[in-house]
Amino acid sequence: MKIVIVGCGRVGAKLASDFAEEGHQVSVVDQRQTAFRRLPPGFRGQLVLGTGIDEDVLRNAGIQQADVFIAVTENDNTNIMAAQIAQVIYRVPKVILRIYDPDRAEIYRELGLTVICPTRTVSEMIEQAVRDELVTKTS
């Protein structure tokens, strides 16, 4: 499977490493050369320096052949724009993006994108942990 990942922070590097180790063809895009240091020694994927909303950069990463596109930069707007480019222009079959703003996450989910919102996920987990504690104390 051909996977293009935009953003080589902790999450992007982990995804790239895991998918490459599984034998997938992985391209990682980041605008900072130093970000690629997060990848393990011997990483066999393609590294592309540039921004994930630049079509030339995305083409260099092989977006035309991508089966999966993942946008996990630290910037919601960049992730949204990159995901829309992948979905609308290049018709990548599976587009996944991370968005921190829970309100915006729902909007893009309705547009057919797979949206991961860590803000919502973590807050729900903490709320559930508090509720579980309250149930335990009242039992």
UniProtKB/TrEMBL annotation:
Domain RCK N-terminal: 1-123
Keyword Repressor tagged: no
SUPFAM superfamilies: NAD(P)-binding Rossmann-fold domains
Pfam family for this entry, one: TrkA_N
Record keywords, A-Z: Ion transport, Potassium, Potassium transport, Transport
Entry-linked PROSITE patterns: RCK_N
Record-level Gene Ontology MF annotations: potassium ion transmembrane transporter activity
Annotated InterPro entries: K_uptake_TrkA, NAD(P)-bd_dom_sf, RCK_N, Trk_Ktr_HKT_K-transport
Keyword Flavoprotein appears in the UniProt entry: no
Record-level GO cellular component terms: plasma membrane
Protein name stated in the entry: Trk system potassium uptake protein trkA
Organism: Thermomicrobium roseum (strain ATCC 27502 / DSM 5159 / P-2)
